[in-house]
C-alpha cells in the first residue's frame, strides 16, 4: 500500500528535526572563533544594540575568548567530535528507531553545522511535506527557543514550496520530562559511592534583565526545580535540593544564585558531599563536562568539600529517549499516529 493510501499516514512524508544550540567543528581557536562569531552576533543572544556590541565583540571578545574556550573544548572532545553534536546525533538515531518507518528523524544545530536551512531543505527534497521542529530546550528563552524560530523563519522565507511546520513547545513542566529526570537522577545517585547531602540543580544562566523584560526562562527553571523537588523528596530522603545558574558571560548582572558561588558557599558552610545535575541541558556539552565536572569540582574542593560528582544529562539513554518519543508522538498527533 502506498503511504498516501494508508489511513493513519497523511499524504507526503513526515519529518522530525531535533535542534540544539551548536558547537564548533573542532576544538581549535580558529574553529571556536568562527562558532562564537556566529553565536554572539545573534541579537537574540546578546541584546545590546549592534553599534555598541560589534566593536566589543570584534575588538575584544573574538580576540581573547576563542583560545580560552578552545582549551575547555579540547578537554571534553571525543572521538566522535563535540559531545553536544555526538549526543544529539545519537538522540536522532534512537528516536528514528523508536518511531520506525513513516517518519524521517534528523538533527541540526542553530549555530555551526549541520545548519537548520540545510536540513530543512534535505527533508523537503526527501519528500517531507510536514515537519516537526523540536528545539531541545526544556525551558523557553528568547536566546535559545526564539532564535531557533528566527532561523527557521529565515529558511522558510528562502523556499518556494514550503513544508507545513510544527514546533515542539517548551516542556519544562511536562510530566514526561519530570518523570524522566526523576528516574534518571535517582538511578545515577544510587550508583554513586557516597550519599550526597545536597543535590544542586544547575541551569544555564541569562542576563537578569531578560527576566524583567518578560522572558519566562527563570520561571520555567524554577518550576522544573519545584516539580522535581516534589518527586525527589520521597525518592532521595534527607537530600537537600538547591537551584543555581551557571556560565555567566560578560559584565552585566546574571540570574542568581551563581553555581560557582553556591558550590563555594556550600563547602564553606560545612557541606562535604554534593552532587550536581543540569536538567536544562538535553545533552552533555562543554558547559556540563568542563564547567561543572572539572571547574565546579575544583571550586567545591578548594572551599573544603570532600565528595563531588556531576550527573550525566538525559542524553540518549532510556529515560530521556522515552520522554522525547512521548513528546514527539503527541505533537505529531493528527499527522501520524
Ligand atoms: C551572552 C551570552 C550567552 C547567553 C545569553 C547564553 C544563553 C544560553 N546558552 C544555553 C546553552 C548552551 N550554551 C553553550 C555554550 C555557550 N554559551 C555562551 C554564551 C551565552 N549563552 C558561550 C560563549 C558558549 C560557548 C562556550 C564558551 O565559550 O563558554 C552550550 C554548549 C555548547 C557546546 O558546544 O558544548 C549550551 C548547550 C542556554 C540553554 C541558554 C539560555 C537559556
Ligand atoms: Fe550558552
Ligand atoms: Fe561556560
UniProtKB/TrEMBL annotation:
The keyword Phosphoprotein does not apply. One of its GO terms (molecular function) is metal ion binding. It is an enzyme of class 4 (lyase). Fe(2+) binds at residues 204, 287. Catalyzes the ferrous insertion into protoporphyrin IX. Keywords: Cytoplasm, Heme biosynthesis, Iron, Lyase, Metal-binding, Porphyrin biosynthesis. Belongs to the ferrochelatase family. Its EC number is 4.98.1.1. Its main location: cytoplasm. PANTHER family: FERROCHELATASE, FERROCHELATASE, MITOCHONDRIAL. SUPFAM superfamilies: Chelatase (SSF53800). One of its GO terms (biological process) is heme biosynthetic process. This is Ferrochelatase. InterPro entries: Ferrochelatase, Ferrochelatase_AS, Ferrochelatase_C, Ferrochelatase_N. It catalyses: heme b + 2 H(+) = protoporphyrin IX + Fe(2+); Fe-coproporphyrin III + 2 H(+) = coproporphyrin III + Fe(2+). Pfam families: Ferrochelatase. GO terms for cellular component: cytoplasm. NCBIfam families: hemH. Pathway: Porphyrin-containing compound metabolism; protoheme biosynthesis; protoheme from protoporphyrin-IX: step 1/1. It is found in: Cytoplasm.
